């Protein structure tokens, strides 16, 4: 992109987003606290699949109707197998990226999903090709969650030609704490033109086309999108990855490598880049500041420009790997091209500081990432930022939270006069399954629900 193109893109007004046609989940964070369910469905007949989408579409919330997180909403995403089952024409199927058509399990080598994370160890039905439709319900309270779940269930219960493969409830109260006890869902990219109020951050708003198909991206032009436009425009791509979290192993690691409770909490913060309250180390380097952690106007408003050596937030900590911000990277990378909107959800009992042995409870999280290139971005992050350390001069060192750790892995904490290197860090998260999905616009859901959709377009 030439300097003239960049100037033109900078001064050209961004096109208004067609909010009435975009699923709310693309632009709005989930509630806090939250309740919800992920439902997995298989399409057995084209007629059954079309009926399902026609029933669900009126209940899918649009971004125009999601001015706040005070009500429940339903989101729908489809796999490549769903489009095949719906008899979408071959020309349209071929217009989708190879990553989507091949699916997550087939790309395990690119995702570095090996060993315990390999597809042969995944829970059914993930990776089997049977997951065609995911229906996700997000709600701010239990009553609205149950009501939305009843609404969703009534659309597919006893529907001929559609099979319920499974469902999984999730939620976290209070403060969206994840399985390791950290406040979650703090840092999400600001999307240009979004009605979602952006929390203060030094990161610039990113062009809408990096997240929603049919709009200019960071290069000034729209990314390639599936055809026809009735199918692709105002949609996006989704990465769904289910992780089991070993909270007991995490607690033992802290105990074994720090002497006092205070030192254990500091070590925990050094692994993540934030204290459990959500306060970033860059703004609270010595002790936790719960008021800062709870303040959306302050808890994400920082950079790493004054901490390039990582004396406050280590270069290898989780949040710095996932968004290096203004860090000086050893491998030149345009960070804005690798941002992803996260709608991750936690499941299982809340974290406990005294949990040192497996209590048999299932704890974990669903990583849900959305963008116009979500699949390629996730593969890049898995290869370069999560399971490698060259981009921050850390060699083979991996992400301390979600990285797959080989035997005798290390984690480096810069400090003066000599850095500290901790040996024997474990894999605290194990992949239990996942899928590559497409999140259609509301009009595309209607388009797909019609017989011979390639012949009968429904326009906005």
UniProtKB/TrEMBL annotation:
<feature type="compositionally biased region" description="Basic and acidic residues">
    <location>
        <begin position="285"/>
        <end position="299"/>
    </location>
</feature>
<keyword id="KW-0575">Peroxidase</keyword>
<dbReference type="GO" id="GO:0005829">
    <property type="term" value="C:cytosol"/>
</dbReference>
<keyword id="KW-0560">Oxidoreductase</keyword>
<dbReference type="InterPro" id="IPR006314">
    <property type="entry name" value="Dyp_peroxidase"/>
</dbReference>
<protein>
    <submittedName>
        <fullName>Dyp-type peroxidase</fullName>
    </submittedName>
</protein>
<dbReference type="GO" id="GO:0046872">
    <property type="term" value="F:metal ion binding"/>
</dbReference>
<keyword id="KW-0408">Iron</keyword>
<dbReference type="GO" id="GO:0020037">
    <property type="term" value="F:heme binding"/>
</dbReference>
<feature type="region of interest" description="Disordered">
    <location>
        <begin position="281"/>
        <end position="307"/>
    </location>
</feature>
<keyword id="KW-0479">Metal-binding</keyword>
<dbReference type="InterPro" id="IPR011008">
    <property type="entry name" value="Dimeric_a/b-barrel"/>
</dbReference>
<dbReference type="GO" id="GO:0004601">
    <property type="term" value="F:peroxidase activity"/>
</dbReference>
